[in-house]
């Protein structure tokens, strides 16, 4: 028996002032439950196509000694030390940047997948600065067929970092 059949078979209670059906308890709960799920569905539908707002994505890199990160992220890249608890140091910038997360089985050109990619605005200058700082370049600089020029380095705690620049459109 469905809900419609139950409602049509309900008895009516007449209080003298108003008339209303005597609804079995399970029918009231079923009706309330349906209404609840309809409200939930309406909320869900109103959020459809509206992803959560991501405030930031942070790359967390395991290291035995966080102090070694300073020479690479602060001294070489010029990032600010935003937080230092000893066991974690966070380097960053107040500049607005695009957020991307890449998941890869390979990265082309026969290279290992880097742990981190950092896009810069002047790759030639960063190559010069890396060489001047004694940072070993393990790949490149190379122009890749997908429109980037890049080089790889290993940071002091062994992570592979891809430093890249997108080719500028020629005028």
User: What is the CATH H-level superfamily of the largest domain?
Assistant: 2,3-Dihydroxybiphenyl 1,2-Dioxygenase, domain 1
Count of strand segments: 8
Radius of gyration: 31 Å
Q: Helical region count?
A: 4
Give the CA-based shape: globular
Q: Would you identify the CATH architecture of the largest domain?
A: Roll
The main β sheet shows up as:
4 strands, mixed
CATH class of the largest domain: Alpha Beta
- Quickly count the domains: 2
Query: Strand sequence of the main sheet, in spatial order?
Result: 5-8-7-6
Distance between the termini: 75 Å
SSE order, as H and E?
A: HEEHHEEEHEEE
What is the CATH T-level topology of the largest domain? 2,3-Dihydroxybiphenyl 1,2-Dioxygenase, domain 1
Spans with pLDDT under 50 lasting ≥5 residues? Answer: 1-11
Q: What class do helices, strands and sheet pairing give?
A: alpha+beta
Describe the structure.
This protein has 171 residues and is an alpha+beta fold. The protein has two domains: 3-47; 66-166, 2,3-Dihydroxybiphenyl 1,2-Dioxygenase, domain 1 (Roll). The protein has four helices and eight strands; from the N terminus they run αββααβββαβββ. The protein has helices at residues 3-8, 25-47, 69-76, 123-133; strands spanning 12-14, 19-21, 80-84, 89-92, 116-119, 137-143, 148-154, 160-166. Strands 5-8-7-6 form a four-stranded mixed beta sheet, with helices on one face. A hairpin with a 4-residue loop joins β3 and β4 (89-92). The N and C termini lie far apart (75 Å). The model is unreliable at 1-11 (pLDDT under 50).
